[in-house]
Amino acid sequence: MILPHPTTQLQAVATLAATRAGQHVMANLHRRLDANMVARDDIKHKLDVEAQEVALATIAAAFPHHAILAEESEHDALDHDTCTWIVDPIDGTVNFFHGLPIWCCSVAVQYQRQILVGAVVVPEMQLTFEATCDGPARCNGRTIQVSQTTDLKMAMLATGADRSTPGPYTFAFMRQVAEIAQRPRILGAAALDICLVASGKLDGYVETGIYLWDVAAASLILQRAGGTFEVLKQYPNYRMSVIATNGQIHDQCRSQIMPLFNEVFATT
Ligand code: IPD
Ligand code: CA
After folding, report:
1. Residue of 91, 97, 164 with the most ligand 1 atoms within 8 Å of its CB, for mutation
2. Contact indicator for 184, 260 with CB cutoff of 8 Å
3. How many Å apart are CA 184 and CA 238, to the nearest integer?
4. Which residues surround ligand 2, an ion (CB under 5 A)?
5. pLDDT tens for residues 10-59?
6. Is 65 exposed, middle or buried (0-12, 13-18, 19+ CB in 10 A)?
7. Are 181 and 156 in contact (CB under 8 A)?
8. What are the pLDDT digits (tens) for 113-139?
9. Between the CA of residue 184 and those of 48, 92, 154, 156, what are the distances in Å?
10. Which runs of consecutive H residues, i.e. helices, occur in the chain?
11. CA distance 41 to 225
12. Among residues 78, 91, 110, 75, which one has the least CA distance to residue 4?
């Protein structure tokens, strides 16, 4: 594939956009409860919208003719021959609302169905994860790698406990993750979960329902750190079921959770 721009140029803007979005949120930490909508399964925060505006302004200043797919905007169909910036201004909004520092800002560029660059900035933890499709994954400038765990029974697996998965499956799925792993975890920010797999702190992450903007940047960071990212099923409006692992436990993880996934799929 002939790249439309040097990946270093795209990466610099992706990291800047995510950093500035995070800085805006950090400057407004006193507004943690300032949400437009609070429900059991989701929170729409005013800072989601504001941080997205900050990120999009940064992108538009550098690449005014590129396309945008952003969580807080209308979601048009992707034109795969145009560079598309995929933006999640706050991943982990519910955590943020409660004061838990596990939230992040995620920016990726996709072109011809491939993620070219990704940046995930975790402001309260002072972590910046980055990758280009032709370079290593990094955290705060240092190269990162996935864990060497080979036995699923000894793996730390994260999941999302997504409430919109139908019927009893959210909790059946959590239980299955708990049974197959050494320890299950629900951290609450998919992009950070996957970056933690990329940096060897978790061995895998599985999710029945997640959006492209939650995982686009982190999926590239994981793959460039030696891990495996697999979309199990795609749904309308950029929603999908995914497994993200260190690679070594991928097949074990897949075979242990597929029977349950198949039941979920049969109902969706
Ligand atoms: C959510 C987080 C969470 C995952 C949910 C996502 P948001 O993203 O990534 O970990 O379990 O499915 O929707 O709404 O905070 O951007
Ligand atoms: Ca979000």
Report:
1. 91
2. no
3. 26
4. 71, 88, 90-91
5. 999 999 999 999 999 999 999 999 888 998 878 888 999 999 999 999 99
6. exposed
7. yes
8. 999 999 999 999 999 999 999 999 999
9. 28, 18, 11, 6
10. 7-26, 46-62, 93-98, 169-180, 190-198, 212-224, 250-266
11. 32
12. 110
**Is 257 in a helix, a strand, or coil?**
helix
The strand pairing partners of 243, in sequence order, are 206, 230
Token duo for residue 146? 């996935």
Average pLDDT, the chain: 93
**Quick check: 187 and 244 in contact, CB under 8 A?**
no
Tokens at residue 236, please? 């309308």
Nearest residue by C-alpha to atom 1 in ligand 1: 92
Sign of the CA dihedral with 131 first, then 132, 133, and 137 last: negative
> Token pair of 134, please?
């032709």
C-alpha dihedral, 29 to 35 to 39 to 42, nearest 10°: -60
Q: Which residue has the tokens 């970056």?
A: 195
Minimal-distance CA residue to ligand 1 atom 6 = 210
At residue 30's C-alpha, the angle toward residues 25 and 31, to 5°, is: 70
